[in-house]
Each structure stands twice: as structure tokens, then as C-alpha cells.
Fold each of these.
Amino acid sequence: MSEAQNINVFDVETLLDPYAAYKTLRDEAPVYFMPEMNLHYVTRYDLVREALKDTSTYSSRFDAFMNTTREAGLAMVPADVRTQIDDIARRMVEVPPTMLTLDEPDHTKYRSLVSALFTGSQVKKAEDQVREVVERTADAFVSALSPDGAVDFMEGFAGPVPLEIIGDRLGIPKEDREFFDEAATVSAAALRMSPLPPQEMLRRAQVQLDLQELLIRVIEARRQDPQDDMISILATSTLQPDDRPLTHGEMISILNQFLVAGHETTTSTFGWGMLALCENPQLQETLRANPDLTRTFVEEVLRYESPVQGLPRLVTKDTELGGYPIKAGQMVMLRYGAANRDERQFPDPDVVDLHRPKAGMQLAFGSGIHHCIGAPLARQELNLGFPALLERMRNIRLSEAHPPPVAEPSFILRNVPQLYITFDRN
């Protein structure tokens, strides 16, 4: 019996630290069938890339799979709470698939509406605004450290920077930012597997309804008075070739995707990057002395701890991947986190290598037509953020007064919810 047959990819311990399991699967069963879910788990870099490129065979219409997963999470909720959650759901606007869970040509119909906001040139134009947020937040974070104390990096810097920037890009009014930040966090948390008390599930359902109401209110305001933001673009655009305005549901669908992708992945990468700096003081010194290496450091952190560990695809026809037969109607789970540690593509993959050639070949942002539209903005925030922190801090280390950081279990995302550090001020 191979070691791969003993791996349970849903086991909490595996989710907390999946890399040994990933290696075993890459070596012994790179397309690993899970009959209980009708799912093939793909871990090798070349095979993940192959599936990402073949969008006709591996469809992004995986809504049904995600809905089944959500229903499984609600199965154990007490009947009275489930009734209240269902009542909230009935009051919500129906959200159709738009970008993430559509194939061509429908995918591009929606993506093209907002893609101009995230081109390299457009992101570069907004660099001064991003830099101001980064510098201001870094100043506040460093000042928050009490003598001989510690501070939660996730709460003080890694979370606030992307949330403020994506809030600005979307066009969320300043007076609604506190609630928006809470709602964004709740939306990302829906993809995690930490068990929740029923009342917390009910609270989160209400937050989602309140978020929809906020977005609809802002959409209607922007239709009357457009601003320079994404909500205005969506509110005043005409969907082609249909030649009609977008529905509230379509706009909420698009905004929800940016709300999660626009902050969660960047927040997680800030966290994992800071942990790497704490665990390897030489990285701190090298990056201070050679700030031009920051770009490679960012790519390496994205590779080393991919904030999106994987996404599913629906198989549209009988096929094979790496010699493994796959039937139409089955799902594949493309594990970016496993592909990014594949030694066939990245020699010595368990090391953050500041001189790694072609570090940008990592798949943390996906590949092909579904390559993350916000990747240029995320890279900009990260490439500005780490130097700003290193300019203000030295001897960065984990706080001994707090438990060591641990990932939060999730089948999709990989984040570190708390990261208490201490440091000396420069």
C-alpha cells in the first residue's frame, strides 16, 4: 500500500500543515481520486498548469460544488437557527455566477467591465495613494508597540492596508468603512473550516444581508452621481452583447469577489512574509541591504505559502490528466499550494530563495484566463509594504509571550489569523 492511500486531505492536521502530504501525493498519486466526493486532487505543477490552460475540458462552473460544501457546513445547525438563517437567505438578492465561476465568452463579458482598473499602468498611476496608506499604517503600527511588549501584525498592519485600499477602489463611503471591514472579513471566513457556534453563523448571515443592502445603496447613489471607483463603473455600464444594465445581483457578485480577493490574499501574504522574516533574521538584513530583492521575496512568499491553496474545476468530458482517467461530471481540485512546492519546477522548494530564477512562475494567482485580475495591485501593496516595515523595524522576532502562529484550517485559503511580533524601532 502506498503512503498516498493513507492521506486524508480534509484532516485538520493536514490542512494546518499540508506540505508533507503534498509531496507524497506529487510523487505517488499526482491525480488522487477521492470517490466520496467524486473529486480528483491534482498536486503536480505541470498537471495543474495543463488543466488551467484547457478551459474547455476543465470548466470554472463549479458553483454546485461550492454550494454543496456550504450546505454540508449547515447540516449540523440546530433547526431553530437554521430557520432563521434560511429566512435571511430568502431576503437576500440572488447572486448569479459572474467572473470566477464562468467560462468564455461569458467570463470576459463581466471581467472586461473592470479590467482597466487593474492594468499595470493604471495600478502604477495610483501608486502614490497606495504608498500613503502603507506609510501611514506602518507608522501607526510601529508606534503601537509598548516597551518590552508585542503587537499583532495581522490586526495592526496586514489586515488594515489591503482593506483600506480595496475599500477605496470599490468606492465604499468612509462612514461605512468600519462595517465594510467586518463584512469583508466575514466573507473570507466563509471559505474556512473552523467550527462556529450556531449564533455566530446566524450573525454572519445577517452581516451578509447587511452588506448587500449597503452595496445596493451605494450602487444607486453612484448611478445618480458617478465617482472614480469600481461601483460607479458597474452602476453605469452596459453589459455586452446583451445591451442592458447589470442587475443588482450581478454587481454584488462581482463586488463580492473583489471584496474577498482584494484583501484576503494580500493580508495572508503579508502575514506569511512577516513570519518568514521572523524565522530567518538573515532575510531581514539581506532585504534591507538589497531592497531590489523585495520583488523576488514577494514572489517567493506567494509561492512558499500560497494564500489560495487551490480551486475546483468541473470536468466537461471524459479525459485523462497525467495518464489518469477522469470522467465527465467529476471535479478536479487544482492545488496551487502543492504545485508551488513542486521540486520539479522549483529546486529546493521549501526555502525562500531571494535569488530564485523565474520566481514569478508561481501559481498563487492562478494562470490563464482566470489569472487573478487584482494581481498587479496585490504585488504593489506587498512590494511597498515590506520595505516600509523594514525601514522602521529591526530585530523582528516572534513574541515569546504569545502562542506561536498557526494557520487556520481551510480547503481553499491559507492564512495565519494572528501573528504577535516584537521588534526594535529603527
Amino acid sequence: MKKLTPGRKRLIDNSITYGIVIAAFIILQVCNAGGLLSPSIQGQLVPICAYVVMAIALNLVVGISGELSLGHAGFMSVGAFSGVVAALSLQDVIPNDALRLALAMVIGAALAGVAGVIVGVPVLRLRGDYLAIVTLAFGEIIRNIFNVLYVGVDQNGLHFSLQNEMALGLAEGGKSILKGPMGFTTNVKMATFTAGFILVLIALTVALNLVNSRSGRAIMALRDNRIAAESVGIGATKYKLMAFVTSAVMAGAAGVLYAMNYSSMAPKKFDFNTSILILVFVVLGGIGNIRGSIIAAAFLTYLPELLRNFNLDEYRMLVYAIVLILVMLVTNNPMLKSVFTFAGRKAKKEEAEKGGAVQ
């Protein structure tokens, strides 16, 4: 039996990941067309796509780069609010919702990438707990900035203020977009499940290509042994910044998609708890396992709504926490690991014996 080369194995593994995403989209679209999806599931489709992209993004930093970031909700908020401002400002210029949503995603992703560079250049020189603390502080700083930021638009362009809505000085016919702690309250629901699916495919393609590229191998070499990698000329700051900024860009685009699914949203939505939730997706799906992160993000995003359907409103979060604990216990059970390891070794042994028999 012919042994698969590493490149062939990687191609098969990536094809399975793409297949799972595409199959899920087709099945959900068919069920939706047939009226088989409940309103609660329909309402969760876009947030699931946004959180899947966030899980892929954070896995680039935590799993592939080996750094702990606790501030990805900050990048998500940068994309969300800048995308909303862009979409509402261009409403008269670009009447097509799909085109305006795409442009808002590009703007949100670009500004989140700029924030990633600003944060990443000084922060990625730190290691371990120091990096986690600084990224956590960044997320809280961004949230507090949006809490006091007022943005409006009129025929003279955009107006900004850190005082109140009246300080914007909008001309007649102008409109306020961001209103400090209230966030945006204008109906900008332009996000669709199809747009979310396309964004997931783009994020997945970027992540897998980066991981399997020369730069990706350099990033993983720094994760496994930084001293050895630097000794052969791999620049730690350059490659870690590459992963960090790419992750921030994805988070910004996901933030735009998420915000465009609601008629209003406040900055408090993107607090520390959101960053931890995204980290939970990565940990439960397997650190460094992009496919696992996708499945974990989709399942855990819908789990609270599923529990609500069973009339467990009062105990919903309690059951959710218990499920998380059970999943962690099962995935870290040495007995189960030994079973899978034994099965894998047995399969390899049988394969080797068959190969010897053929020869």
C-alpha cells in the first residue's frame, strides 16, 4: 500500500475541512428553503459565521503562533463600529446593500489591521502572561474609547466628538451614527448567511494557506523553539506580527458581519467576556486545530439557544457551563487518549504489515 506524502495528507485534510463548511451551508440553505429551520436557528446563522471567523482568527495567534491574546474582542469592535459608520455614510452613494456590506467589511478589516499593527509592534516583544495582560488592556481601552465616541455625518462629511451628540454640530439633514455608550441604534441589518459563508471560506483559505506556507512554518518554528528558530535567521517579531495582524484583519471583518446583523449594538457587547468566549472556542476545538475551532464555535454559539428551546431559561447558563466542563474532561481524559493512541498505533501496524505482505 502506497504511503501518502505529507503534501497529499495536508491536501486531503484541508479538503475535508472545506467539505464540512460547504456541506453545512448547503444543508442549512435547503432546510431554510423548505421551512424546516426554526426562527431561533435562522437568527443564529449569521452570528455563527461571525464567531467561526473569530475562532479561526484567534487560532492563528494562540494555536499557530503560540501566543495568548485576550483582546480580540477589541479588534472585533473596531471592525464592527467602523463598518457601520462606513455603511451608513455611503448609503446615498452606494444604494446596493451587498456592495455596501462588502465595502464596509474591507474598511472594517483594514482599520482592525491598522490597530493590530499599532498593538502588535510593541506588544509582541513580550512573552507569556505579559502579552495576555497587555492585549486584555487593549481590548478594554478600545471599548472605553467607543463608550465616549460620537460620530455623525452630513453633507460636509463625518463629524467626531468625545463630549456628546450635540457637540457634533451636524447640519440640517445630518444624522448621528455612533452615540457613545448607546453605540449605534440605526437599523443597518444587511448581513446575510450567504455573506457569512463567503467570509468563512475566505478566512479559512487565508488561514490554511498561511499555515502551509513558508511563513507559516517559520511561525510554528518560533512557537516550538524560539531560540533555535532565531539562531537560523528567523525574525521573531516579523513573523509573529504577520500572524497577529492577519488575525486582527479577520476579526475586523467578522465584527462588521456581526454588527450588520442587528439593528442596534452597544460597545459593552465587546467586553472581556467576548474575548474569553472566543478563546473557549479555540481551546475546546483544539489549540492549533482549525477544523475543531469551526465545529466548536458553531456548536457552542447555538447551544444557549438550543437549551432555551427546552424551557431551560433559568438554568440555561448553568447547563452551558456544565457542558463546557464535561467537554474539557472528556477531551483531556488520559484513558480516552490512550484508546485513540492504541487504535492509531494498531492501524499503523496493520498498514505496515499489509505493505510488507504486498512486497
Amino acid sequence: MSFNEFAGVYTLLLTPFNEDLTVDYKAYEEYVSWQASFSPQHLFAVCGSSEMTSLTREERIKCASLAVKNSSGVPVFATANLEADRKNELEEIKALEQQGVSGLVFVTKGMCDRPEEQFEYLNELASHTSLPVVLYEFPGMQPHLMDASVYGRLASTGRFKGIKDTTCLLDKIKEKIAVQGESNVLQANIPFLYDSWEAGARGVVATPTTCGADLFVKMWSEWVRGDRSAAEKTYWQIIELDNAIDSGFNLSAKYLCALRGVNMKPINRGGGKLSPARMRSLKAYYDKVKSEGILK
């Protein structure tokens, strides 16, 4: 099985915050370097896990810029079409290009009930950049699940290199795989990760990559070399990771990063906090996988 340069592991980046909810850029730079050290195929800055809709445009652009500077050469993708009007979207595309990102991400923008309008919007938006584009079924803008026929048409233009599929339904995942052509269906759902790769998906963009990217890189490497037995065992470990951080994500992911030695506080702009019981549960999980050599 062969894969193109836009397949593989897209590691999501969290946004560290200070107590006053300003972005902790120093911690962000250290975190990006840590994520890049696992050698994923791509880093995904300015994403749902980054709390991108709570960031200002200036914060999003600065995070993307710092991601590029601290990526050790790992290609960085960043979301570019969160603004409400076309003028600001185009300005953000240009600004991100100037930061040196390797690719852009376009969210489906809550237009999935208007397929023809969505196709025209995304296709026209992509005409304003020479960078490769990955689509993102972002649940924060409903309805967000793109019909496979629209994806197939966009993929056939050659401008769109992949899609972060968030359907969480294997039959819907397979519908996109059937029309992906030279593009890449990238799986966000952990329970169906192994099954989707068996069906022909070509990578992963999932929340546990924020704090356990090394496991995903390991599984992808095993998959690419054809060692299905090893890949399945690593998949089981990823399932455990996903279950460990699922409650209270992304605070739980930030806390696990801190346990792993990353300068990261369990603070976000969405409010809430981890209970002592939740933190104890995460610590017990981490102690176990560290003792077994699964995570460092």
C-alpha cells in the first residue's frame, strides 16, 4: 500500500493559557517542540482542540506562526476560514501564508445542508491560495457532516488533499473513502480508527494526538510497513488513552501533558476545572502506562 505526502498522522495542538486566560505563548512554543519531537507527518495548529473559536484572529495567526517556528520542519496546517465574511477570510488566508504554514484547513462552515452552495464556496475559497487544503467537519458549526458526493467533487479538483471525517459512523466513513481518489480520508473517531484504515482511510486527526502523539506515530509506522498485528496492539493502547481523556477533554489532555513533563496548566477559556477525583484517575492511568513503557 502506498501513501502520498498528505496521509498519516496530523497531530493536534492544544492552546496553553495563563491564569488570567491570556495565551501562554512560551508554554505553547515548548509544547509545539515536544509534539514535533514525535515526528508526526503534520502538525495541526488552530483546531477545535486549540479552542480556535475562542481565540482572536491575532491569536490564531500568532499560534500558527509559533507552530511553524518550533516545528523542527514538520509541516504545519492551520484553519483559515473561521471569519464571518469573505474579506476577513481572505485576509486570514494571506496572513497564514505569510507565517509559512505548509497547508490550510477549511471547516465545512455549517453549510452541509446546502451542498451546492457549499461546493461553490469551498472551491472558490481554495482558488485564493496555492497551498494544499484539508477539509474539517468541525462540530462547532452545525450542520457539519459533508455529503460524500460533495467531498468527491472537491477532491477531484486536486486542490483538496484530505478531510478530517467526524461522522463516527463506519458506513459514512466508507462512503467518503469510496470517492477519495488521490486525497486522504483522515479519521477523527478512535473506536473506528483501525476499521477505517482497513477500509482505506489514510491517516488520523484525533483529539488524543494532543497528548499521546507518539502512540499514533507508532501505529501509523506499523501500519505502513504492513505489521497489522503490532498496529492492532497499539490501537488497543490508543483506545485506553482515548477513554482516559474523554471525560473533561481538553482539560484532561492538558493535565496528561503536564504529567508527561510538558509546561501546561489545565485551564481553558470554556470554563470548568478538573475535580480531584478526575485528576487522580488520570494520574493512575499515566502511572500504569509509564510503568509499562507505553508512554514516557
